[in-house]
Structure formats: structure tokens, C-alpha cells
Amino acid sequence: MALDPELLKILACPVCKTPVEYHEAESVLACAKCRRRYAVKDDIPNMLPEEASRESPPRGDEHRGG
User: Fold this and answer.
1) pTM of the model
2) Domain count, the chain
3) Domain residues for 14?
4) Any domain includes 61
5) How many CB atoms lie within 10 A of CB 34?
6) 42-58: per-residue pLDDT in tens?
């Protein structure tokens, strides 16, 4: 069972207000802007920021001083 497409249309990251993308294989809602990943368990998204994980930036995206 997957998340309701109508629900996905209105869900946004509670931290930065950016729409989230559902990654069904990983059971997470991912925010591309702040890189938070919200777990989905039994088709119920946990959108609590304090329980979200953070995705590491891709190699080469680290800020380099200079």
C-alpha cells in the first residue's frame, strides 16, 4: 500500500515548507532543500522534525573556504 497521491500533493517539510518527495522503496518522505528525511511507517508519515534524519550532501557540495 502506498501513500495517498492527494496527501502527497499537500505535504511539505515542516522546517522549510518545501514540498517533499515520497521514496517508496525506502519508506521516507525526502525534502530536497534541507535534506531532511521523514520516516513513513504503515503508510503514516512521521513529520516531526526532531525525529527526522538528515541526508549527507553529495560529494563536491561541501562548502569550501578560500
Assistant:
1) 0.81
2) 1
3) 5-54
4) no
5) 14
6) 999 999 999 999 988 77
